[in-house]
Amino acid sequence: MKGDFTRQTFRADRYYSAVLLQQGRVQLDADANEQAAIQLALARRTAADLIGQHGGPGTGFEISYVPRTPRKSPASLNIRSGRYYVDGILIDSTRPAVGQPVGGPEPSPVSDSWTYWDQPSAYLDQEREADELPGEFPFLVYLVAWEDLVTTVEDPSIAEPALGALAPDTAARAKVIWQVLPLKIEGAESPQQAFDDWVAERTAVRSFLAARTEQPDKIEDDPCILSPDAAYRGPENQLYRVEIHEGGTAADGATFKWSRDNGSVTFPIVALDDTWVTLSSLGRDDKLALHAGDRVEVVDDAYIARGESAPLPRVEEIDIAGRRVRLSEEPQAGVGRRAAWHPLLRRWDQRESKAAGGTVKLAEGTWLDLEDGVQVWFKPGGTYRTGDYWLIPARTRTADVDWPQDKDGKPLMAAPHGIQRHYAPLAWIRGANDIQSLRKTFQPLAKPVTG
């Protein structure tokens, strides 16, 4: 989650049951966030232990097929509203109630289902051939969910108006995002087993990173060597985020981007005109502002939900009076131009791009410099997914990064800290009227008293 955090301290393998505050101590966001994470992990583990890998009450996420219409409207699905659990995570597809304006007509009844095309977080386009359902039967329909961060940019109602428009925002929110998508499985005797194999392949951990501060030459030969370069040299505490931009392997051209502020420096977009971008603000101060030469990413809700990776243009010119910036190239079509999708510029901090598109070419088996002595190392033979990330706290007091080490002080390799996606099969569609449900259901324990 790209929030303005000091660090993220929750570790499931520590088995902590609570965070206990002590009198007279400094309070940190990391402590409160860890307590929330402990409680959430407990609730989800309990649900998963009782329910299993997936299941739900009633008819939530029940699937029916809607064939193509004579007017050439593409085939669709009906997705019943309700609740479903995947790996203990509650996924609620209940449509929100519609309010009635004063003196206005009665609102239309709330539908008990979504369609494939209007589900809220998939951002599917009937004009995109890749988004259409498979043209031939059979195919499988599955549910995928993950947790994302919501700030005042995505939901302005979070902001407290009494603080004023120029005041910083306060707490962010976590939200479970879900999508119902099709999967074509060829020649499978068991669609369930084929789906399980597909999920295992998609969720397998095949990339690892280690982090450290820069080491002087020949330190392995003489551990007593000290150097002013062997330290974190930044002027402030930071939470570095290293995120895969273009996935694949290093040989295939995988790239990454990095931010010293966990990717949290963003600028809401008001308008896009060719390479000129009008913003609601240019930043609160110089540290959180845009400067000529910065690499930025134009994103919106749909771009994020689809897991896309477009080139990162460079800021070429800044019009302070007009709150505008000119980019080195026009953002890709269809991104950042719809206000309802909360478009924004996200600043990344690599400047000397070593790969096309404003990112850094991923090299394995060697220490790569970020800045101020912070270095990262990718394990050879990795396969990388767009959006996977690692968080690296850097501290001025210790002049080092906060990263796990072995007993000899060597940095340990770590799997990506996110994004963790969770999958469940919903239906095996053998024909328009031949659907095998793959959902699992349970009934409430409470029953009427008899006798």
Rounded average pLDDT = 91
Provide the succession of SSEs. Answer: HEEEEEEEEHEEEEEEEHEEEEEEEEEEEE
Q: How many beta-strand runs?
A: 27
The helix count comes to 3
Low-confidence stretches: 221-226
Strand-pairing-aware structural class: mainly beta
Widest β-sheet, arrangement of strands: 15-18-13-14-17-16
What is the gyration radius calculated from CA atoms? 24 Å
Mind describing the biggest β-sheet?
6 strands, antiparallel
Tell me the β content.
25-35%
Shape: globular
Secondary-structure blueprint of this entry?
Layout: H1 29-51, E1 54-57, E2 63-66, E3 76-80, E4 83-86, E5 89-92, E6 113-115, E7 139-150, E8 173-183, H2 191-203, E9 209-213, E10 238-246, E11 248-249, E12 255-259, E13 266-273, E14 276-279, E15 295-299, H3 301-306, E16 315-319, E17 324-327, E18 344-348, E19 360-361, E20 367-369, E21 374-378, E22 383-384, E23 389-395, E24 400-401, E25 422-431, E26 434-437, E27 441-442
Parallel strand pairs: 1-27
Antiparallel strand pairs: 1-4, 2-3, 3-6, 4-5, 7-8, 7-25, 9-21, 10-12, 10-23, 11-22, 12-19, 13-14, 13-18, 14-17, 15-18, 16-17, 20-21, 23-24, 25-26
Write a structural description:
This protein has 451 residues and is mainly beta. It has three helices and 27 strands. It is globular and about 75 Å long.
